[in-house]
Amino acid sequence: MKTFLHFIATLLCYAACDLAWLNLFAKKFVHEQVGERLAERPDWVAAVVFYLIFTGGLLWFCVWPAQTLSRALLNGAFFGLVAYGTYELVNKALLDRWPLPLVVVDMAWGLAVGAMVCAASWLIGRRLNGF
User: Fold this and answer.
1) Is 34 exposed, middle or buried (CB count within 10 Å of its CB: 0-12, 13-18, 19+)?
2) Does residue 131 carry a pLDDT above 80?
3) H/E element holding 127?
4) Is-contact 66 72, C-beta < 8 A?
5) Is 88 buried (19+), middle (13-18) or exposed (0-12) by CB count in 10 A?
6) For residue 37, what pLDDT is reported?
7) How far is the CA of 122 from the CAs of 21, 51, 73, 113, in angstroms?
8) % pLDDT > 90, the chain
C-alpha cells in the first residue's frame, strides 16, 4: 500500500509541475516553435500513459535506489534529461525543421522536472516509511 501511495503522490507531483509548466510557459513557446504541427486537442490517453510510465521510471531508477536526497535529485535530473532528450533528439534527427530552441528548452525542462519531482518524491517516501 505504501508503494501505491508513493506512486500516486509522485504522479500528482509530476503532473502538477508539468501541467503548470505547460500552461504558464511552454504552451505559447511550443506553439511559436511548431504551431502548425500541433493537434487542436491533446491526446489525453497518450499523455496519461506517458505520465504513468515516466512516474514509474522516476521511482524505479531514481528515487527508490537513492540513499540520500542529493542522490535522488541527481538521479532525477539525469533521468529527465535522458527521457526528454530522447524524444527531442529523435524528433530533431527525423523530422523536417524540428527547431533547436525547442530541443534545448525541453531537455532543460526534463532535467529540472526530473530533479524536482525526485527530490520531492524521496522526501515523501521517507515520510511514508516513518523516517
Assistant:
1) middle
2) no
3) helix 100-128
4) yes
5) buried
6) 84
7) 21, 18, 9, 14
8) 92
- Give the length of the chain: 131
Domain boundaries, the chain: 2-128
Helix-helix angle 100-128:69-94, to 10 degrees: 150
- Residue 48 CA to residue 32 CA, distance in Å, equals 24
Residue type at 41? R
pLDDT in tens, 83-125: 999 999 999 999 999 999 999 999 999 999 999 999 999 999 9
Q: What is the pTM of this model?
A: 0.95
CA-to-CA separations, 130 to 54, 85, 127, in angstroms, rounded:
26, 35, 5
**What are 128's three cell numbers?**
511514508
